[in-house]
Structure formats: structure tokens, C-alpha cells
Design the sequence.
């Protein structure tokens, strides 16, 4: 079956450093991979997506990399800020655009 | 004003009680979803609806039912609540294909924290 999982449950970084959050997947048949951010007490919020035929996509301060050879997805956050502290979920869409979510990584930004 | 609202935000109930969680949206989206979130398990899909006449089971629909009363309203019911249904419940919406924009983006409500004693 398919699954989406994150490598580490918690990531601690210093303010201003770059953060890299990783995700692995087991099934290659996905149309899109997506990253969501969930702040404490709130619902998840869409950050960025990447089509499965792409290797890289950049947004504002974020970059998503997709390595289909090793079935690995990463979210890079440049110059991490305290407001980036949240739980980050990777997800995948297939066909019907209903995402399957991974378990989440908690990003802690220290001042 | 919030685009996706959920009521109640918190609810404590007893085993065997019937509970309804409500979701309303002002985004004009066709698609609505109900998810359950448990610590360490991410989000799991309970039910989803692609339009008013369409209802589909997700991966964990047992013990739950839904009603799509209108395009803007999608309610989740627990017919006879049990303690392992204690969780955080999220409603979400998304735009349908062909209307442009990021098809993958779901818009989530603030969540309902349900405790079943």
C-alpha cells in the first residue's frame, strides 16, 4: 500500500538558520506532493506543492525538492523565523486530488 | 471572518451519546472533507463530498456518518460516541478541477476538539 512518512518527529533550529524537513514515500504513483504547516491551535495551512514530474519548486523562503530515485521529498525553509515554528506535514495526491498525509514533523525555532 | 468555520470548538460527551459536528464555508468550494487528527498519526480522512449529491467514505468511516445539507454545509455525526473517537476533528474545503488555481490546496477550519468519556 501507499504511505507517506517523515524522518524525524522533531527538528530544532536557531533563528536565522536554514531548516530542512524530510519526508519519504513508498509508492511512486502520485500526481502531486504537498507541504502543509499547522500552527498550534489551528488547522493545517497549504504551503507549496510540486508535481511528480518536477525535481524542484521554489516559493517565498521555501523550496521543495523531490528525489524520485530514492522516493524522498524535502522542504527547505530559508532564514527560519520564530513564526515558522509549527508542525509540518507532507502529503500526496493521486488522481482524485484527495491527499494522504504523513505524520508530521514539529519544527522548533530557538531565538 | 473565517472562510471555514466549525462548531463547536470543544465538546466533552459521554459514551453512547450522539454528537454532531458542523462545518460551514464561505469560499464557494464544491469539495468538503472531514478529517480526524490523533497525536503522532497525522490527518486521516473520514468522509468527503465533491458536491451536494455526492458522499464518499474515507479510510476511517466506521462509526461516523455525514450530511451535506448545502454546498456550504457539511456535518459529521457520531451516532454512538466511544472513547477511542476522542480526537481533533477538522473540516476542509477545496476547489473543484477546471476552475483554475492550486487544485491541491485544501482550506482547513480551526478544528473541533472532542472528548468522549
Sequence:
Amino acid at each position: 500500500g501507499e504511505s507517506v512518512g517523515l524522518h524525524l518527529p522533531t527538528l530544532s533550529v536557531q533563528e536565522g538558520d536554514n531548516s530542512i524537513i524530510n519526508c519519504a514515500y513508498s509508492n511512486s504513483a502520485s500526481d502531486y506532493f504537498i507541504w502543509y504547516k499547522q500552527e498550534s491551535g489551528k488547522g493545517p495551512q497549504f504551503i507549496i506543492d510540486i508535481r511528480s514530474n518536477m525535481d524542484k519548486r521554489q516559493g517565498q523562503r521555501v523550496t521543495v525538492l523531490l528525489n524520485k530515485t530514492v522516493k524522498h521529498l524535502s522542504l527547505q525553509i530559508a532564514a527560519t523565523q520564530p513564526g515558522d515554528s509549527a508542525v509540518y506535514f507532507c502529503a500526496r495526491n493521486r488522481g482524485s486530488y484527495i491527499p494522504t498525509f504523513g505524520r508530521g514533523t514539529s519544527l522548533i525555532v530557538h531565538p | 471572518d473565517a472562510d471555514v468555520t466549525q462548531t463547536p470548538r470543544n465538546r466533552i460527551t459521554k459514551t453512547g451519546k450522539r454528537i454532531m459536528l458542523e462545518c460551514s464555508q464561505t469560499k464557494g468550494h464544491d469539495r468538503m472533507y472531514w478529517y480526524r487528527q490523533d497525536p503522532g498519526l497525522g490527518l486521516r480522512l473520514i468522509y468527503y463530498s465533491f458536491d451536494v449529491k455526492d458522499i464518499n467514505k474515507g479510510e476511517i468511516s466506521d462509526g461516523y456518518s455525514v450530511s451535506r445539507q448545502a454546498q456550504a454545509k457539511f456535518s459529521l455525526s457520531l451516532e454512538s460516541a466511544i472513547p477511542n473517537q476522542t480526537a481533533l476533528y477538522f473540516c476542509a474545503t477545496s476547489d473543484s478541477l477546471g476552475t483554475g488555481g492550486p487544485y491541491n490546496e485544501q482550506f482547513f477550519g480551526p478544528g473541533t476538539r472532542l472528548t468522549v468519556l
